[in-house]
Specification:
- This is F-box domain-containing protein.
- InterPro entries: F-box-assoc_dom_typ1 (IPR006527), F-box-assoc_interact_dom (IPR017451), F-box-like_dom_sf (IPR036047), F-box_dom (IPR001810), SCF_F-box_component (IPR050796).
- The strands form six sheets. Strands 12, 13, 14, 15 and 16 form a five-stranded antiparallel beta sheet that branches. This protein has a four-stranded antiparallel beta sheet with strand order 3-2-1-25. A four-stranded antiparallel beta sheet has the order 4-5-6-7, with no helix packed on it.
- It contains six helices and 25 strands.
- The protein folds into two domains: 1-58; 105-406, Neuraminidase (6 Propeller), CATH 2.120.10.
- Mean pLDDT is 81; it is low at 1-58.
- The chain is of the alpha+beta class.
- It is globular, with a radius of gyration of 37 Å.
């Protein structure tokens, strides 16, 4: 073959090979393009599927269910959850939610204790912990809202998580220690002579849905004097005068006890113009703002001290010393019905009780154990075997006042 034909053959082969290579390259590029497009389409499809599957796999909770779940959580958790989002903050602050939460936590009890040291100290701990672990109970120090460490404000009572303190007999402080919100009432504005005192009581008007503080002004210097009464409304943040205490009746206990929509005072009743008197229970209906007498049980009045009132498991109770050998506690199971009084427990005094008496009771367990205070310390008495336990609270001792309260979201600023 001639060189020219050979060259021509190589050229033809080259063009043929080049054309084939070009076609293969083009085909490969098309295929790659298709793969890329297919891959892109597949990726887009997968992402879309993932989004759809993700959105469908996320549980959808109706608002009603969210409310049910959150309303069963403790206050400390809910205070933190306010920061989750605006809708949760709005929900947890809503009055309907606060009332619903209150229904689930009516027995989530804590006890607040005020110390007897020179400075005013407040501690709080769970009752369950106090009773189940009496030797290792941890207490939380509370920052009292009124900044005066040398004060000694008395605890008036508690209602739905609000704790009421009397400030110098002239005004009260309503405080929810669980959410750390407080409000001080305006001053009463009464100019009383030395020796006069004010007895307060905190309660709830279920009809008007309003928390009320009742103040009874007593002047023991005046024989057969009237006891003037004012009511503070948390809703209006103001005091107003109501009907005086029954004629000749003077409360001798520091605070009224809230039971079944009423405030109850242990009082002295002076008979006519005579100097003789007896003790009675005066009940004030917070909705009607009317008074009635509650009859005590038929108890051993002879050689017994004058009774004081308290609240146990939402029932009115009364307690007294008998012959300085026993401390007796009665409970009124059905409020207002005298026949429903039962003698709950008789607590013996230890030898040589000196001048100290039991105070309380503050709580009774399902097993019947009764929590009291004696000589600035808590005491747990078990009537089943007549044994005593002495709860020791870490980072605090020496108490002069105590009150049981529940952890709630109820705010004194609104409700």
């Amino acid at each position: 073959m001639s060189s020219s034909s050979s060259q021509h053959g190589r050229t033809t082969d080259y063009h043929h090979h080049h054309h084939r290579h070009h076609r293969i390259g083009a085909t490969r590029k098309k295929r790659e393009r298709r793969v890329l497009i297919s891959s892109s389409t597949t990726t887009t499809s997968m992402e879309q599927h993932h989004r759809e599957s993700s959105s469908s796999s996320l549980p959808f909770l109706p608002d009603e269910l969210v409310v049910e779940i959150l309303s069963r959580l403790p206050v400390k958790s809910l205070v933190k959850f306010r920061c989750v989002c605006k809708s949760w903050n709005s929900l947890i602050s809503d009055s309907y939610f606060i009332k619903k939460h209150l229904q689930h936590f009516t027995h989530h009890n804590r006890i607040i204790l005020s110390a007897t040291t020179a400075e005013f100290h407040l501690n709080s701990c769970y009752l369950n912990s106090l009773i189940s672990n009496p030797l290792t109970t941890y207490s939380e120090h509370l920052n009292y809202p009124v900044k005066n460490k040398y004060r000694h404000d008395g605890i008036v009572g508690s209602c739905n998580g609000l704790v009421c303190f009397a400030i110098k007999g002239d005004c009260v402080l309503l405080w929810n220690p669980s959410i750390r919100v407080s409000k001080k009432s305006p001053p009463l504005g009464n100019n009383w002579r030395p020796g006069c005192f004010t007895s307060f009581g905190l309660g709830y008007d279920h009809v008007k849905q309003d928390y009320k503080v009742v103040a009874v002004f007593c002047d023991p210097n005046q024989f057969f004097s009237e006891s003037k009464v004012k009511v503070y409304s948390m809703a209006t943040n103001s005091w107003r005068k109501i009907q005086d205490f029954p004629h000749g009746v003077t409360p001798y206990q520091n605070s009224g006890k809230f039971v079944s929509g009423t405030l109850n005072w242990a009082s002295n009743w002076t008979h006519g113009n005579s100097s003789s008197s007896s003790w009675i229970i005066v009940s004030l209906d917070l909705q009607k703002e009317s008074y009635r007498e509650i009859l005590p049980p038929d108890y051993e009045k002879e050689e017994s001290s004058t009774p004081t009132l308290g609240v146990l498991n939402e029932c009115l109770c009364m307690s007294y010393d008998h012959k300085r050998t026993h401390f007796v506690v009665w409970v009124m199971k059905d409020y207002g019905v005298r026949e429903s009084w039962i003698k709950l427990v008789t607590v013996p005094y230890l030898p040589n009780p000196e001048d100290f008496s039991y105070s309380g009771p503050y709580y009774v367990t399902d097993k019947g154990e009764v929590l009291l205070m004696f000589e600035f310390d808590l005491v747990l008495f078990d009537p089943s075997d007549h044994s005593f336990k002495y709860p020791r609270i870490q980072n605090g001792k020496g108490w002069f006042d105590a009150e049981v309260y529940v952890e709630t979201l109820v705010s004194p600023m609104k409700h």
